[in-house]
Each structure stands twice: as C-alpha cells, then as structure tokens.
Amino acid sequence: MTFSPEDYKNAVMSCRFCPMCHDVDAVTTIARTETHSPRGRGLALFAIEKGLLQFDADVADAMYAFTADGLSREACAGHIRHDDMVIEARRRLVEAGAAPASAVAVLDNIRKTRNPWGAVEPDAAALAGKPAPGAKVFVVFGSTARARRPSVLEATAEICNRANVKVNYSTHEPDGGLLIYQLGFRGAALSAARALEILILESGARTVVTPDPDVFRSLTGGFDAYPGLPKNIEVLHISQFALKLIESGSLAFRGSSARVAWHDPCAFARFSVLHDAPRNLLHIIGGRSPFEFEWRGRRARCSGECGGLSITNPKTAAAIASNRLAEGARTGAAAIITTAAAADILDAASKLNNNDPAVLELAEFAAEHLS
Ligand code: SF4
C-alpha cells in the first residue's frame, strides 16, 4: 500500500504530541528516551517540516532505531501508519545522504552477495539437492536461511523430498527487497521485488513455498508500489504446505513431547496475517496446542530483528530479544519455536541464558520429527 505525502503529514501531525503507543514500541521500552519514542520521532519530523531541523546524523539516529514491526499502528486508536512515516523519513535521509553507514552497507552487501550481511552463501544444491526445472512448486528460501541458517534450507527441502514433491528453486536466489525498502532504499527495493517476481513467473511454477515470513509478506501483500505476485500464483508458508501434504497423506510426523511456545514473527502477526497454520502444524507434531505468549497473534511483540534494527542497532535489538525470550520463559515452555530471522536473534539471547528456554526454527523442528 503506497504512502502519500498527505499520509506522511497526517502521521507527523498525529504522532508529534502523542504518548499512546510508547509501551508497545520495542525500542522505546529499551531506550527509555523521548528521542527514541513514537512522539519523539513525530516531533523531530515536524521540526524538519517547519525548517527547525534537517535530515542529518542526529535525525538518522532516531529514525533507524526502530523496528517497523507494525505494533504501534495496531495499538493506535487512529491506526496511524507510524511505521510508514519512519520508513519515509529514512527514504528522505537516504536522499539527503544522511543514512547511517550500517544501512548503506546492507544495500552494498545485497548487491554483492545477495544477502544483507555480505556473507558467502553455501552451495544450495549441496544442501537441498539439485533444483527440478519446470516443477510446479518453486521454493524461495529467503536470505536468513541461505546466509545464516542453512539448516532451514535443508529442512525445507527435506519436508518436500519426504513427500515426493519435486521443487524448483534458484541456486542464486536474489533478495526480495523488503529489508532495503524498510531501510529507505525504495527504488532498489522495488527493482529487487520485481526481479524476484520475474524469476518466479519464468519458472512456470503455480505454487511458491517459503519458510521465510518476510518473503511470504512480500509475495502475498507486497510493499509500497509492489503489489505482490499475481493472484493466480499460490503462495504458501512451509507450515501451510506441510498441512496440505499431511491432509493428502503424503507427510506424517512421529510426534514430540517437547513443551514448546510459538512466537509469531511480525510479518505473520500483523502484515500478511498467518496465525493458525504454524500453531496447527505444531499441534499435529506435538499432539497439543503450543504454549502461548501473553503478547501473541496481532499483538505479538517483535523479537528485535525487524526493520533492520539488528544490523543498525544490534545492542538494542539484542535487549529486545532478551525481553521476548523472558516472556517466552514465562509461558512455561522449554523451547520457543519461530521462523529463521527471529530464531536467529532469539537463539543468541537464549545462548546467553544457558539455552533457557531453547529456541528452535519451525521447518527444522518439523523436519526433525518426520516419520
Ligand atoms: S501511532 Fe498513533 S498512538 Fe502511536 S504516537 Fe502515532 S498517533 Fe500516537
């Protein structure tokens, strides 16, 4: 959904004096400063509108310390698009040459290596088996699985293989653009989203499967001027695909007695809403519903990985993850299950806490319990 200059002005005017969503802003709850609050961001942007401030390093510090997780809009009585306001401010910072070096590095890394971290990616074919050109199912693994958690790539392929589903995928999968859009690189992001779409359409596949919630969000709901894939292409998260395979008798699980809680990644919590499928899959595997966080579903709190925060402000992101992990511990579960990017940051927090609770990724957990 596009965000017009009028939408931007409306958000600035609404947020500049408003304290109402401070308690759900992941960064505000850690930083506890007015500058890093929804009101502080609105006030800074209002001052720029009035010519009292300019897009510079101080404003960049305030705008990039933000998760863009959608919870402020969810909690806002007027459904003001605070996330989009900040993303537009970041775009103006990029235009003014004032974006932080860490954000610019993400764009450079994606151009060089196709992932935000500049990591050398493992050989996908060695992990997932060779792609099957012309297959009806096309898998998009997502950058976290490719570059940081290849076990998710392997697990996704294993679920498909076990059900005898032939899948196609790109051994040089491009980035889908959502992260660089959130960091303010709008033009590059829209080009990236369209490039991924062309790759999928040219494959001839009718179904796209992904373990990555941000890929799912981009391909189903799009962002900004990118509308997502044409509606005649089915897009499924791996949890939805696994449920279909179970229903058709192609996939079965041997069960698990692990006490697990489900953390909704923000893309599923509020953007391309997908609450039931991961929970239903966990119910089938474990024979019981997963434990629930107090803040769940549409009001699930961010793990700290959204909006590029884990790259631009890693300490704040880690503190947010630590809080979310503690909330997970209060559910009584021995392990938190979520998707790759959230698992990545929560796992780091868990390791600092003697793996209490442990953190697991959904596709990995499912693949481990295949019968
Ligand atoms: S998003 Fe809504 S609740 Fe939050 S600061 Fe803006 S106007 Fe207030």
Written description of the protein model:
The protein is an alpha/beta fold and 371 residues long. The chain has three domains: 5-99, no CATH class; 124-247, Rossmann fold, CATH 3.40.50; 260-368, no CATH class. It is built from 20 helices and eight strands. The strands form two sheets. The protein has a four-stranded parallel beta sheet with strand order 2-1-3-4, with helices on both faces. A four-stranded parallel beta sheet has the order 6-5-7-8, sandwiched between helices. Helix 1 packs across helix 3 (38-49), helix 1 (5-15) crosses helix 6 (82-95) and helix 3 crosses helix 6 (82-95). The longest helix is centred in the middle third of the chain and has 18 residues, at 186-203. It is globular, with a radius of gyration of 20 Å. Iron/sulfur cluster binds next to helix 1 and helix 3.
What labels describe this entry?
alpha/beta; globular; 3 domains; binds iron/sulfur cluster
Can you describe this structure in just a few lines?
The protein is an alpha/beta fold and 371 residues long. It contains 20 helices and eight strands. The protein has three domains: 5-99, no CATH class; 124-247, 3-Layer(aba) Sandwich (Rossmann fold); 260-368, no CATH class.
